């Protein structure tokens, strides 16, 4: 080894000496050459000496420019890049059954062939932008030299050919738009490559399809539809001249915003067409007298077809494309998602139908002092027309209304402009339109629904709100709300993992529970306690807070939190306080559905995923997803026992509406959830082939369902879930005969009452969930942008406290 190192040192010493010697020789010769040249130069007459010196300087600069251009060649788009850009197509997002869901368009663009473009456009373009287009090879040296002379004289002019402009349009990031020599040289090199690769016809076609116009439109076809409400093939000479004239400055010569400038510029284009004999003098004189005659029709944004699901996938895909060097707007990728269109449509219809019904209930119940008493949604729908929605709510909550006004962006703007808080409040309360919009937004009931395949983790349906166009805030992945009793199966699952039997007995009684900080918590059930013994199984079936709290004591908080993380609640913070067992730590709906899916999969946890694979424009698969091995979250026997306990929730507990209202007789299990003051309603149902869950509530938790009956998740969120699963089973998307391991189909139901539930059904009310030190309930969706609190995708608590529930009239 030492001999090898010694030889390496000797070789390096010799190489360095040779390099120094060669460099010394080269430097000596260069100095000698410079001296001879300088001596010869000094022998020349002064005028000739100046000419020779100028020529040498020019040649030196030219040599440096050529050398720099050679260095830039590998830094400019390659021939492969040119072909990819010319064949650019937006990537497409499709459902699992191949139906298009969304496109990654670069604005509004529709490509057409040159034959589909009016000859008037081509004549106007070449006459104005590049009249020697068919004579040069990408660079018009005559025009470039003229532009340099004019610019040097203080009259800046552009000398770019159509091919150079196309280079900028095709590669805006690689070339840039800064006015400097580096950008110009990159543009020249790319233009030469384009001319060497494509015909003049192909260059014109590519240019006219990529040139940007205003209003998020690209290409001549969309421009023709936007400004003249016709296809590019039907543009007349005046319309063509108007659009070509905009290319000098789309905003400055915008015919909508600056019609006078646009008219003048259009006539300049006509003048260029006259100059190059496209039209004669008489025709020119006739045309310049005519008005613009726009038929402006702004094209609808294709993004309106987006949903919460596609918006979520878009965000994920942008990060993936950046990491893997793909351009979603140009590379024509096909993104195959997990969404099942039939199930998605069933979910959308369920959310629309049942959220409308629940909105009617909330509107009617809060419209008067007395609360109607009915388990029929139809009765409230009939009363809605004769009621003033939430009239009694606002009359009985004046302080809350003032708080809503003070939390608005308009209030912050007024106070920032110098208005006193009292004056700003009075001004806004006097604004009828503002107050009507505020009341309506605060009292609009919202809902979210998600469904995933427990066997794979594939998301099959996703509805983030009642209307994506109106409410982009996603109640599936963004809204973190208290899950209430839907968290309890995790507590009981941890107990089963510890070895406790579902028949383990507890006393149904209120007990003092001491938290780690010394505070005392006394969880209760609003329906009262019996003082009798109750099994752990029945504690879950009837959603008893008193029993669940005792189970939590026997198990301990760390195992409960560990199991929750393993099952799928990975991002939301879980507070280490006793009330966690009753669902006081906010989580997202997607996390809860994921946790239940892990239980349904016999304790095997899979991360939810939304894309199965991505193919390129030739159909070759370039990436696959959702193939990670599942992680064991809990023992299979524990998961099977917990599933059986949750069957009881459906058969005889707080989820009986699944059977009685919707007539679902399949082997299903689930759990409802309700939070303090009926702020949140939850219901999650497990079928062997699919797990689906819903959340129902108001964006601001200070607005709630009024009655305890309709405030329960087993009466509100269950409507969405039951509606969805009934459709999925009736249409054959889910098997009626599928059975969980160890289960058996329930006996046939002799009579189904589709509207009313039994009067003596078990009720689930949140009881006293409040605990000192426990996290506060999230009170609102993210604050408004003007100075609002940043949410980072989570619900943001508002400053004002939640109002005490109003006393309900006795029957």
TrEMBL record:
Residue ranges annotated for the Glycosyl transferase family domain, each copy included: 98-273
Record field: compositional bias (Pro residues): 800-811
PANTHER family per record: BINDING PROTEIN TRANSPEPTIDASE, PUTATIVE-RELATED, PEPTIDOGLYCAN GLYCOSYLTRANSFERASE
Catalyses which reaction(s): [GlcNAc-(1->4)-Mur2Ac(oyl-L-Ala-gamma-D-Glu-L-Lys-D-Ala-D-Ala)](n)-di-trans,octa-cis-undecaprenyl diphosphate + beta-D-GlcNAc-(1->4)-Mur2Ac(oyl-L-Ala-gamma-D-Glu-L-Lys-D-Ala-D-Ala)-di-trans,octa-cis-undecaprenyl diphosphate = [GlcNAc-(1->4)-Mur2Ac(oyl-L-Ala-gamma-D-Glu-L-Lys-D-Ala-D-Ala)](n+1)-di-trans,octa-cis-undecaprenyl diphosphate + di-trans,octa-cis-undecaprenyl diphosphate + H(+)
Matching Pfam families: Transgly, Transpeptidase
Pathway of action: Cell wall biogenesis; peptidoglycan biosynthesis
Segments passing through the bilayer: 50-73
Region named Disordered: 738-811
Annotated protein name in UniProt: peptidoglycan glycosyltransferase
Penicillin-binding protein transpeptidase domain ranges (all copies): 449-679
UniProt source species: Janthinobacterium kumbetense
Keyword list, A-Z: Carboxypeptidase, Glycosyltransferase, Hydrolase, Membrane, Multifunctional enzyme, Protease, Transferase, Transmembrane, Transmembrane helix
Similarity annotation: In the N-terminal section; belongs to the glycosyltransferase 51 family.
EC annotation from Swiss-Prot or TrEMBL: 2.4.99.28
Family matches, as Gene3D superfamilies: Biosynthetic peptidoglycan transglycosylase-like (1.10.3810.10), DD-peptidase/beta-lactamase superfamily (3.40.710.10)
Enzyme class of the recorded protein, top EC level: transferase
Biased composition (Acidic residues): 755-767
